[in-house]
Amino acid sequence: MRLAILLACAMGWSATAHASPLQLKRVTDKYPVEAMRAFAAGLVMHQLEDLHNARNAYDSANRHSPQANTYYNIADLYLRSERPDLAIEALRRYLELAPVAADRAEVLRLIQDLSNAPAKITLGGQLSSKGEPAAILLLDGVLVGTSPMLVRPTAGRHLAERITATTYASRDFEARPGMIDYVALTATQGPTGNVVITGLDRRTPWREGKVTFVGYQRFVLPVGRYTITGSDGHPRLCSPVQFEVKSTRQLTHVRVELGARGSSDCAKIVRVRTQTLTLPPGGP
After folding, report:
1. DSSP-assigned states of every residue in 33-66
2. Tens of pLDDT, residues 192-237
3. Which of 3, 8, 72 is nearest to 38 (CA)?
4. d(Cα 14, Cα 273) in Å, to the nearest integer?
């Protein structure tokens, strides 16, 4: 009796549910019995907004027999959960399993729209921390505001930096289309210098005259013009990095963008961007 009710739902009966971003697919004659049973159970829970158990049931159906309609419905679950990046994967799998689907053009348009959706990333300190000092935030070397802050980066790799009067924290992260996440930047109680350089290898000690420093950490330099000619290891630079320190009471932020290695196994300098940042009260 229970299976009959589930199959009736899978074949077309619709329970009261919230509006769906997608029109849910139904079972087809390609489903073997066990996959049909699991799919039907998933569809019932899906329409009742029990998204977690619906996903488990759909996964069970796919283990018995991967079917296009199951992946289509899984895509809807991800859209309801605000995970368009995972919805894209499910929709692509749907098209792989149903290459001549009648709604192929519509699904391709949806994938394109979802792929263009910016991520929603909040940058800040540790969520468990209270009373953290004021901080500024940089995204890919560009000052975006104060911590915490919501940013909408494009898909791909990004660098976030959080800088207080006495600390510095940085973290690389991957932004996927439409993803929602919190990137915690843990402040390190290290040197409170007036210069930080990003883009160079994090582990390699670099040299500027008699000063040795490590990228993504603050260090001290007096006012003046400087040239980085090499490191105490690899990678070597194809050309020197030049920048100017204009103040010891503000932070000189240098972002070095490297290109592909040259034929001589050196790192090509694409761009060097230097900016002087005013930090919250009590600067370096």
Report:
1. HHHHHHHHHHHHHHHTT-HHHHHHHHHHHHHH--
2. 899 999 998 777 788 777 788 888 999 999 999 998 876 655 557 8
3. 3
4. 58
Cβ(56)–Cβ(46) below 8 Å: no
Give the span between the Cα atoms of 138 and 146, in whole angstroms. 9
Sign of the CA dihedral 265, 270, 276, 280?
negative
Task: Report the C-alpha gap between 93 and 114 in whole angstroms.
Answer: 15
Number of CB atoms found within 10 A of residue 71's CB: 23
Give the pTM. Answer: 0.70
Q: Which residue from 137, 133, 68, 63 is spatially nearest to 103, judged by alpha carbons?
A: 68
Q: CA-CA distances (angstroms) from residue 99 to 36, 105, 168, 174?
A: 21, 11, 51, 30
CA diameter of the chain:
84
In angstroms, the CA 212 to CA 204 distance is 10
The string of pLDDT tens digits covering residues 24-75 is 999 999 999 999 999 999 999 999 999 999 999 999 999 999 999 999 999 9
Domain boundaries, the chain: 2-115, 118-190, 191-284
Give the separation between CA 191 and CA 75, rounded to whole angstroms. 48
CATH topology of domain 2-115: 1.25.40
Give the whole-angstrom CA distance, residue 275 versus residue 136.
14
Separation in Å, CA 69 to CA 55, 94, 102, 177? 13, 7, 12, 23
Q: Output the CATH code of domain 118-190.
A: 2.60.40.10
